[in-house]
Design goal:
Mean pLDDT: 96
Low-confidence stretches: none
Oligomer: single chain
Helix content: 25-40%
Structural class: alpha/beta
Largest sheet: 7 strands, mixed
Number of strands: 15
Number of helices: 10
């Protein structure tokens, strides 16, 4: 038997609860993982509360991240005792996820846990930090250099934003953080932000083109924020888009793209190819200051995951939520 958060939907409605399950109930897969930690991401919050159409079948164990040790394997790349982690691949949406003490998954979805990180540190990074690294890699691949000018990070106090600021600052970029929580200014500066702007400057309908400022950007918000970021990006600047915390719409024009040559790069962490995942985690091990992870994250027990999901969606959580599934 093992403990897990379970989401159910039937005649009694949509609900989430902490349950004890039998290992025989685990879904198909060629690797069974004894999970040590998982996380609570925005998508997990939507799934647990039912406030977004995330879960595709029921019952479902949420948790798009997990880390642990291989307990059983018929996959050629993994043997019993190997430390592994998983991000995305529809886990927690269409396949049972990490908010449980055991998980059975496809070995092709796993990557080795970098030796630099403890399991808890790996989940302090989690999908949010891995997504942030994908954004940084995209900026680099598009030729954005530290000397080119300021890099904007929206949703700065969240998981993606916190790690993005830390990474970009470590690499020598001038990072400007956009947040709706002015009380977090000291926290954001401790991560490496050189300036803070109020998110309301970006969240209202704006002009097709605004004054040029950003050499690059990491946006997790979408909607008017993303449109305004593109409109104020400098000639040949690059904007990476990886979230929709402010909405799925994109009320923009082609002006930034055809008049300033702005590049908008979409970042998908869920189905991202394995080679790029490995590159992202290798770079995280190299470029992320792990001393900042403690400030970025807080740890909660599996029994706290359901109430914390509500707080996460209300914007009451700073940084990353790591779940110790055995606490």
């Amino acid at each position: 038997m093992f403990k897990a958060v379970v989401i159910e939907k039937d005649d009694q409605g949509y609900r989430s609860s902490l349950q004890e399950l039998d290992e025989s109930q685990l879904p198909e897969g060629d690797v069974t993982v004894k999970v040590s930690h998982s996380t609570l991401n925005y998508k997990d919050g939507l799934a647990i509360t039912g406030k977004g159409p995330v879960v595709r079948k029921f019952p479902m164990v949420p948790g798009i991240d997990l880390v642990g040790e291989v307990e059983e394997s018929s996959h050629p790349d993994y043997k019993v005792g190997d430390p592994v982690l998983l991000n995305g691949w529809g886990v927690g949406e269409g396949h049972w996820g990490g908010l449980a003490q055991k998980a059975r998954v496809k070995g092709d979805w796993l990557v080795p846990l970098p030796s630099k990180f403890t399991p808890a540190q790996a989940m302090s990074i989690g999908t949010a930090g891995y997504t942030a690294m994908l954004c940084v890699l995209a900026l680099e691949h598009q030729g954005v250099k530290p000397e080119d000018g300021e890099i904007l990070v929206t949703g700065a106090a969240g998981g993606v934003g916190s790690v993005a600021i830390s990474l970009l600052s470590h690499l020598g970029y001038q990072v400007v953080a956009a947040t709706g929580r002015p009380d977090d200014a000291d926290y954001l500066k401790s991560l490496g932000a050189v300036d803070i702007i109020e998110r309301s400057q970006l969240s209202e309908p704006g002009k097709p083109l605004a004054k040029e400022r950003w050499a690059g950007a990491v946006d997790v918000v979408g909607s008017h924020t993303l449109a305004n970021v593109c409109a104020s990006t400098r000639y040949r600047g690059v904007v990476t888009a990886c979230g929709l915390a402010g909405g799925m719409d994109f009320p923009s024009t082609v002006a930034p793209f055809i008049l300033r040559g702005v590049t908008l790069v979409g970042i998908d962490s869920v189905m991202c190819p394995r080679e790029e995942r490995l590159e992202a985690w290798q770079r995280l091990a190299k470029d992320l200051d792990i001393t900042k992870l403690e400030a970025i994250s807080q740890e909660v027990a599996l029994s706290e995951a359901i109430p914390m999901a509500e707080k996460l969606l209300k914007g009451e959580v700073r940084g990353r939520l790591v779940v110790d599934v055995n606490a």
